Amino acid sequence: MRRQAVAMTYVGDTDAASRLGHDGTPAECVAPRLHDIVEHNAYWSPDRPALLHESTLITWEGFRERMQRLAAGLERGGVADGDRVAVLASNAVDYVVLQYALSLVGAILVPINTRLAAPEIAYILADSEPVLLLHDADHSDLAQAAARAAGTPARIEALDDDAAAPGLWAWIERSLATDGAAPAAAGATGTWDRAHAILYTGGTTGRPKGAIITHRRNLIDGISVGSAFGLRGYERFLCFAPLSHTAAWDYMKTYFLVGGSAVVLPRFDAGAVVRALERHRCNGLWTVPLMLREMMRCEEFQSADLASVTLIAYSAYDPSELMPQVIEAFRARGADSVRIAHGYGLTEAGPFVTVLRPEEAEGDPGSIGTPVPGMRVALLDPDDRPVARGDVGEVCVRSAAVMAGYWRKPEETAAAFRGGWLRTGDLGRINALGHLEIVDRQKDMIRTAGENVYAKEVEAVLMEHPGVTDCAVIGRRDERYDERVVAVIVGDAAEDELREFARERLAGFKVPREFIRLDALPKTAAGKTAKAELRKRYR
């Protein structure tokens, strides 16, 4: 089979002239898309590793062939340009390939957090209206229940292959069985501002919002951050963060852009992560302090050879107490060249808004660094005026690497981009070293075990209980979880009863770990709950 040339490099492509635009420029150069990364690496490094999982190794040539066959089968199965494909599954190699295959088709990926409850998933399905819902064996019942609740007409297929479920590839083979051919999908036309993914993030109204991620956003943020991290060609990334999270996709893609590879684990397990780092000689990982703490305490870490690890990228709001210990512990396990890098971001703008670069991190581990190339960051006051250096303002960003808007939510989109800046809702200031620090969160978001919990969503659920007359949800510092979700309630409902009530309606990480009972909540002059007072009281 003649190897296709890369969309952005036509060396050796004898058919390139047939794809020239009216001005003589290759047409594909006008609109690069995510799958071009695979085409590029398959052309230049066909035999190098791309994806690894346990004993499975897929080369870049194998990645390209798998991507093309999957794309062709999806098209034959009825997935068209602009359609949404939802996925409810743990990490898997085919889950990764699917993202790039959908790029080739022109369809839109909707990855769903497996930790959500059925009603939460049902809302996402009803909002995004996918034509196909893929699930793995572990989440089959949850997918079926959510689909029924949503009333979605989406076709439901198993992502993995086993005796109980024929699996995605069996469905793909059936769709191609008419003539046995597996041509490359024609793909979509148009600019690179087309949507490629919809990532749902929690909303302060209690309903999640779908951030529209374009090909432009996907490519630019990966290119921008490679130099900030100091990545070298052909390095290997360990991915255990859920593929429903922007960090998992974007860190993996950044390594792909430099010709690197990824080891894919189904989920985080401290011992499994350490074993994978050692076995596959991984160079980099992205994590949160809670996971690093568990890794360092697990039995496998005590004797592991981690000399290959050169970069630990992490996200947290106040990791300064732990990160020096992490560096010391990894160096004791042979990682003499290990560096840390603190990345700050959000679903709407990706995980690479600012980066505390490795050469700066050990001197200022509590900050989030400076903007990556191409990202403008401003600290604005309530009147949208820049604050003085050292003063606190809302962190606002501008870049080609931010979302295009919220799916089917024009009012929320306009509010998010008020004044031409994407409003993060976080409050920050520039410290004496010229680095950005997060001071507080304007939105009532709680960061627990690497997940974002929006207080109003939890409050809305608790207020449905007849034994609760008033409540406020806040975050409380926690050594293990960064923050824990705390519900301050007024009413006679029993704690166990409330916890079970919330567990039936919310993802487990959103369920309050602690309940505090008061006779009345403190109120401001305007009659609103004085959350600042509650945070100070129970900090």
Task: Tell me about this structure.
The chain is an alpha/beta fold and 539 residues long. It is built from 17 helices and 24 strands. The protein has three domains: 122 residues, Rossmann fold; 225 residues, Rossmann fold, CATH 3.40.50.12780; 93 residues, GMP Synthetase, Chain A, domain 3 (2-Layer Sandwich). The strands form six sheets. Strands 2-1-10-9-11-12-13-14-15 form a nine-stranded mixed beta sheet, sandwiched between helices. β11, α11 and β12 form a beta-alpha-beta unit. α10 crosses α11.
Could you provide a short overview of the structure?
This protein is 31% helix and 24% strand. By secondary structure, the chain is an alpha/beta fold.
SSE map:
Elements (H helix, E strand, L loop, with lengths): L26 H4 L4 H10 L4 E5 L2 E4 H17 L7 E5 L4 H13 L2 E4 L6 H11 L3 E4 L4 H11 L4 E4 L9 H9 L18 E7 L7 E6 H15 L6 E4 L6 H12 L3 E4 L5 H10 L4 E4 L1 H9 L13 E4 L8 H10 L6 E8 L3 E7 L1 H4 L8 E2 L4 E5 L12 E6 L11 H7 L5 E9 L5 E6 L3 E4 L2 E4 H8 L5 E11 L3 E10 L3 H9 L10 E4 L13 H8 L1
Helix pairs in contact: 2-3, 3-4, 3-7, 5-6, 8-9, 10-11, 11-12
- Structural category is alpha/beta
The count of domains is 3
Strand order of the largest sheet: 2-1-10-9-11-12-13-14-15
Q: Give Rg in angstroms.
A: 24 Å
Amino- and carboxy-terminal Cα gap: 64 Å
Summed up, the helix count is 17
Fraction of residues in helices? 25-40%
Shape: globular
